[in-house]
Amino acid sequence: MKSKMKQAVLLASLIAGGASMAAAHHSFAAFDISSQKVISGTVVKVNWTNPHTWIWLEVPNEQGGVDTWGVEGMSPNYLARRGWSRTTIKPGDKLDVTLRPAKDGSKGGMWMSAKRPSGEVLMMTGAITNP
Predict the structure, then answer these.
(1) What ranges in the chain are assigned the alpha helix state H?
(2) pTM of whole model > 0.85?
């Protein structure tokens, strides 16, 4: 009987641990959810990979150079179900990206939306709206 009880406790611990890891995966703790920032730049790389997409942009800075910013988006599966593909955003695209900035001040954030020079808007929810 003790063996069955130990197994039940172990199983419950594994389930609880897995649930907390899953919740942590979807945490927004790294981002300042109370603020937004707009960056304008050129896409240099797109990581269309799980668990989240990443867009890398070169953004002009005040010193006359460029900074590389990383912006985290939704999963490829989520976006694909809403009409995106791995070529919706590609290197060379110019974008004005609205993001939730990283709390640690690094050059990155969480994707909110992006606007192309044509006026097309790409939302984090996967929606694509034309002007």
Answers:
(1) 2-25, 76-80
(2) no
